[in-house]
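Exercise 7. Given the encoded structure of a 256-residue chain, write a plausible sequence.
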């Protein structure tokens, strides 16, 4: 099983990374991708991946951290990653638009999003997209830059089935978190129930969005299993078959 999006670079895990890794390996999760949200977390994600064979990482600046964005510094982090063997940098992310926390800097958000898409294209990496309350502008930018030869995924998907179909037309995949298990997440459940195999995979986005039945606890990569089991039940399919199919999709997408 693969957790395609976790934040072990979050301060919440500063003293617990070794135990958290042991926990998810014991739970049958053999791979996790540590995704970044600013320059410091990008460097930290690289260090974590260097220390654990089971870890890979993505670098990038989240739209909430625009003040931290420096294209030259981010590019230098990417170049350093490219010199390592093995090179465990698998994506640029998470990047995108977020109008929930800040509606005053929309144009700057768009500029930084596009800048990081261009970096991903330059270095032949897929992008991990964050979108919150910005579906229209996000789709417009994605249409302008499609096709994504190296891949794109909308992480923690929470949009409609109609919007998901628009993403599929662009060849963009979706990943699902513990929100799919929440009782009030009927729209997410409708989407994940109807998407074709090969178009989605699973993540935790930990330490946030802990799935049922462990909601209320700090989220960890080990809980990605709960997300997959719930979706298998929702789709009325064999869990192991769904796990194998979504893991294959993730491995091909991230080239791991």
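Solution.
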């Amino acid at each position: 099983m693969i957790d395609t999006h976790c934040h072990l670079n979050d301060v919440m895990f500063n003293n617990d990374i070794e135990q958290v890794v042991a926990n998810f390996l014991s739970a049958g999760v053999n791979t996790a991708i540590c995704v970044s949200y600013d320059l410091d977390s990008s460097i930290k994600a690289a260090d974590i991946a260097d220390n654990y064979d089971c870890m890979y990482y993505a670098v990038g600046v989240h739209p909430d951290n625009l003040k931290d964005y420096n294209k030259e510094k981010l590019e230098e982090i990417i170049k350093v990653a490219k010199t390592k063997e093995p090179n465990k940098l698998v994506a640029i992310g998470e990047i995108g638009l977020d109008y929930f926390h800040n509606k005053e800097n929309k144009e700057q958000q768009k500029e930084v999003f596009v800048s990081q898409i261009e970096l991903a294209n330059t270095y032949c990496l897929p992008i991990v997209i964050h979108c919150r309350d910005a579906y229209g502008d996000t789709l417009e930018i994605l249409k302008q830059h499609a096709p994504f030869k190296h891949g794109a995924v909308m992480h923690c998907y929470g949009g409609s089935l109609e919007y998901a179909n628009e993403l599929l037309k662009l060849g963009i995949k979706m990943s699902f978190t513990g929100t799919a298990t929440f009782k009030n997440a009927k729209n997410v459940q409708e989407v994940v129930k109807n998407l074709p195999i090969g178009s989605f995979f699973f993540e935790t986005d930990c330490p946030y969005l802990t799935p049922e039945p462990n909601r209320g606890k700090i989220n960890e990569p080990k809980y990605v299993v709960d997300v997959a089991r719930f979706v298998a039940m929702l789709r009325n399919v064999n869990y192991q078959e769904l796990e194998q199919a979504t893991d294959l999709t993730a491995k091909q997408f991230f080239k791991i």
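Remark. The domain at 2-254 is CATH 3.20.20.140 (TIM Barrel). Students should compare their own answers with the one above.
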